[in-house]
Amino acid sequence: MKKFLALLLALCLMLPCVAALADDTYEVALVTDVGNIDDHSFNQAAWEGVVAYAEANNKTYAYYRPSEDSTEARIEQIRAAVEKGAKVIILPGYLFEEAVTQMQHEFPEVAFIVLDTTPTAGEGSPAANTYSILYKEEQAGYFAGYAIVKDGYTKLGFLGGMAVPAVIRYGYGFVQGAEAAAKELDADVSIKYWYCDSFAPSDDIKTKMDSWYADGTEVVFSCGGGIYLSALAAAEAAEGVVIGVDTDQSYESDLIITSAMKGLKASVVLALTKFFDNGGKLPEDMAGAVANLGVESDAAGLPTDEHAWRFETFTVDEYNAVFEKVKNGELAVSNATDAAPAVEKITVDYQN
């Protein structure tokens, strides 16, 4: 049944793209990184933002998927989108850094909205036709670590994809949140911490997760594209649980206890709204700018819908209280990526 629903979702996501292409031109384009628009993660959330805005505002739209994981393939699809008449192109993921650094100059009349990376131009800023959106992943990671420990879990795991800034911020935020909750509860908490150097599931990742769960790990925060599938497979065999990432992944499995989310869909909708409201060009506050979105923009947090809230003792009210502390500045979460967070109460086993 789950496979059928996943297939149905993928078909629904693809239909608007086909309709737009029937006219042979479109105004809004998205180029995927190494995944597709049905990856239940980064690409899909960005694509849902494109669809939501375009459908509500009668804009034509489509997506392109590179033929391989390379800068050349991504550039090829960006050029194809421009040839089809795209006025604005959404590029989700740090893998687009090199591609957009070149393309923003080759096509100065096209606007680029880049998620999770910052292209360089001269003094290290995006060009005037590029808007870069970064996220405060450390805040979402903090909430996940805090909540899971407050709910009674003490043997944790962090499975990161590649050790890129966004993933590191998720992981170090997770450590900070677990540390804070452990201090409040006076609990002994341990974390196994590992980057698998991939965003795709594999037998090797599952084997590693099997060993973690066999050694007593209760929950794994899986942070990086499709690697959550390897974590889930291991959790199912060991009766463990998993924390999802980027979007609400609760529908993937009953074993996903929560998800550390960032506002991908909402930020794409907002950026496209401002672009078209300004006559089809980036407004002054977006042109060549880098945004860093977090709790103040509701762009970092945990899902609180009833279907997604699977904690046994930690409540939504308790979550909202710590969320407000971060939002009003009472509680600061470090976004540093150059050194692991200092801890006193918990132990962290860094395995890379």
Could you give a short description of this structure?
This protein has helices spanning 2-22, 42-57, 71-83, 97-106, 137-150, 165-185, 203-214, 228-238, 264-277, 316-327; strands at 28-31, 61-64, 88-92, 111-115, 130-135, 155-160, 190-195, 219-223, 241-246, 256-262, 290-293, 300-301, 347-350.
Description of the structure:
The chain has ten helices and 13 strands. With 352 residues, it is of the alpha/beta class. The chain has two domains: 167 residues, Rossmann fold (3-Layer(aba) Sandwich); 174 residues, Response regulator (Rossmann fold), CATH 3.40.50.2300. The longest helix is centred in the N-terminal third of the chain and has 21 residues. The protein is globular, with a radius of gyration of 20 Å. It starts with a helix and ends with a strand.
